Amino acid sequence: MIGFMEFSSEYLIVFLALLLCSIMAIIRVIRGPTAPDRIVGLDTINTIVIVLMVVFGAAKSEVIYIDVAIVYALLSFISTLFIAKYLEGGDF
Amino acid sequence: MIGEIFDIIIYILLGVGVFFNILAGVGLLRFPDVYTRLHAGTKCTTFGSIFLVGSVILLGLKTWLWNNDVNGSVIAIHSAIALIAILVTNPTGAHAIARAAHRSDVEPVGAVVDDLKNKTVTKSVKKKPAAKKKAVKKKTGAKK
Q1: What are the residues whose beta carbons fall under 8 Å from the beta carbon of A4, sequence distance 6 or more?
Q2: Nearest to residue A29, comparing CAs of B93, B41, B110?
Q3: How far is it between the farthest Cα atoms of chain B?
Q4: ipTM field
Q5: Min Cα separation A80/chain B (Å)
Q6: How far is it, in rounded angstroms, from Cα A48 to Cα B143?
Q7: Nearest residue to A53 via CA among A34, A31, A76, A30
């Protein structure tokens, strides 16, 4: 609880709203009828987590979270491309 | 005075970004189809993240210029790099997902005509056997 008390309340509202949005994407990942539905949900979760890390680093004024967000963006892009190529079939 | 105006602009940008991100979540739940869900999940998230990261850039510039803190400039520059990474990678990933969904025979709800279907299938099927036949002919010709 001590970690939450350090923020001002505006940033806490932003974090909770982004958490709600990612929960909706997780519901789509669980319920999705086909495989591309699940990939769309995963891509949305990735982007939301990147933005959440950037806002978190600004709220705590720590640069290390923003650096982690940059690396996470590039790695999630590679993983999305790989899964899409795997679904497409054929030769790599 | 100017610092307060900066604070108000930052709060407005945070509100707009959170609004568009929540619209992306609702669209993911409510739309009937892979392609329409792709619209909601990719475009709304990119547009909302522009505003959220833009508010962080403004916050970093404010703490750099008004509070004379060098840490603010580092936050602003690094979050700008993160924004560029999001803007480059997100539409490319969406294009790859849509292409994979079309290639794996997921049809849109209520679609009557699919103009792309015959073109892509015939291209991808015709190319590979033709190349193999040519290679076989060359090999047999060399043997004879």
Answers
A1: A12
A2: B41
A3: 90
A4: 0.86
A5: 6
A6: 61
A7: A76
Render pLDDT for A25-64 as a digit per residue (tens, 0 to 9). 999 999 978 889 999 999 999 999 999 999 999 988 889 9
In B, minimum Cα distance to A86 occurs at B100
CB atoms B74 and A25 under 8 Å: no
Q: Of A28-42, B76-90, B118-132, which gets the smallest average pLDDT?
A: B118-132
Residue of B nearest to A30 (CA): B29
Amino acid found at B109:
V
Are the Cβ atoms of A24 and B124 closer than 8 angstroms? Answer: no
- Note whether A44 contacts B25, CB cutoff 8 Å: yes
Contact B75 A61 (CB under 8 A): yes
Average pLDDT over every residue of A9-18: 88
Residue A84's identity, in one-letter code, is A
Between CA A37 and CA A19 the distance in angstroms is 20
* Phi/psi of residue A8, nearest 5 degrees: -80, 165
> In the prediction, which pLDDT does A88 show?
83
Task: Of A27-41, B4-18, B32-46, B123-137, give the lowest mean pLDDT range.
Answer: B123-137
Contacts of B7 in chain A (CB under 8 A): none
Closest CA to A83 of B127, B104, B124: B104
- How far does Cα A43 stand from its chain's mean position? 8
